[in-house]
Amino acid sequence: MMNQRVFALWLACAAQALMLALPVAAQGLRITPQGGATRPATRPADNTPRRADYIVAVVNSEPITNNEVRSRMTQFAQQLTQQGQPVPPGAEFSRQVLERLISEKAQLQLARESGIKVDDGAVDQAEQNVARQNQIDVAELRRRLAGDGMSLQTFREELRDQLMVTRLRDRELESRVKVTDLEVDQFIKERASSNDLSSLELNLAHILVAVPENATEAQVAELKAKAQQFQQRARSGEDFIKLGREATEAGRGTVSGGVVGLRTADRYPPLFVQAVQALPEGGVSEVVRSGAGFHVIKVIEKRRGGLPGATVVQSHARHILLRPSAQLSESAARQRLADFKKRVESGQADFAQLAREYSQDASAANGGDLGWAAPGMFVPEFEDVLTSLAPGQIAEPLMTRFGVHLIQLLERRQATLTLREQREVARNLLREKKLDEAYVQWAQEVRGRAYVEFREPPG
Fold it and tell me: 352 vs 90, which has greater pLDDT?
């Protein structure tokens, strides 16, 4: 099973070919660029061919239909094939997908029972994140969804459901995870001497020139030549993301949604890791073949995470944090921060002064200043938004497990990690690993408490 927290929102649109963590048995979602942008397929796309439907399972009185299972199987099979990974045998695959749907429904039901709500502002933010991860704007995202047969209402409902589950999971797991100094020491020691893929961090971009299932030798040769053309143009310095869009628009391929985001190599398909293992940053791979077609991969960033002397890009930011409460709803907090943003950008207010007066965390005394931070120091959704900003730019209000933030990036720099910073990076990596493990246990607990009735197909 792959990393649980990597399964992000995924889009069934032309811009999405590379699913970097598609576990058929994994649960959950991240609204991040940590993985190409993706959509949760809890409902079949509106254009899914319909057959006589029937209920295959009931989870606490909520049904799961055969069409839901078949639709999800089709989507997962396509993504696994594109990654060059084998699709499980039919009966086993169906069972895994059904178990995933059961677990998802049980978690969503628990989120609703716990009173967790997601307002329209949070859904808007999630939609913007998906668009940004795919290097497009929201209008283009909606156009592609419509072209794929998915209504905007269905897509937003799925985003809302996944956000509810994510908030429940964060709330339930936060107190379960502790990292000791001894564990940090051991982690750094092992990391420094290891050649394990889990210590190699990669940020890749990707183009796929798809090959039809029953393609003739002549067609395969033509498509390989197209892929080689894209590779040569990329190596000559042309913008890789633009080449990916060109491939998509010409009907010859699909782009992964741009830069995927830094993650450990063991969270990429082995085919991709092998293709770039000897490449430096900026390098473009040879054309490689999978069951889906021909791939061209570019290395955006490559490093051994947390090693002594590692050079990273640090960000200097400040924020204003408002914590929703009985007196201040999430929607009201967003509106207040949006007003602060307008006032700062128009020169009517000073960001630091607003932070001193209103921010509800320890940084308030320093005008919201968070100091210099290496990658991995903030929660993923905060870091993803911060990464998208230019120096001086202020983001739209952002909801995390801590509350609603107004973030401004002040500056960036290249820096070598100090010993203290190495330990903080190691601590955060260990914490993420433990959260993954805690999530698996928690998901099993939620699944175990659910009443599930399996139904036989009609005779």
Answer: 352
DSSP state of 304: E
Q: Which CATH architecture has domain 311-416?
A: Roll (3.10)
Same fold flag, 196-304 and 311-416: yes
What's the rounded Cα separation, in Å, for the pair 37 and 9? 5
Alpha helices per DSSP H over 359-418: 380-388
CB contact at 8 A, 229 and 243: no
Distances (CA, A) of 341 to 334, 384, 395, 397: 10, 19, 8, 9
The answer to whether 283 touches 291, Cβ cutoff 8 Å, is no
For residue 9, what are its two tokens? 């929102």
**Angle between helices 152-173 and 419-449 in degrees, nearest 10:** 110
Handedness of CA 446, 451, 456, 458 (dihedral sign): negative
Tokens of 68: 């839901």
Contacts for 321 with CB less than 8 Å, ≥ 6 apart: 359, 360, 361, 363, 368, 402, 403, 404, 405
> Distance from CA of residue 238 to its chain's centroid?
27
Whole-number mean pLDDT of the chain? 79
Top pLDDT among 187 and 6 is at: 187
Q: Is 258 exposed, middle or buried (0-12, 13-18, 19+ CB in 10 A)?
A: buried
CATH superfamily assigned to domain 4-176: Porin chaperone SurA, peptide-binding domain (1.10.4030.10)
CA-CA distance, 241 to 135, in Å (whole number)?
Answer: 8
Alpha-helical regions (H) of 315-418: 330-345, 351-358, 380-388
Q: State the pTM of this model.
A: 0.60
CATH topology of domain 196-304: Chitinase A; domain 3 (3.10.50)
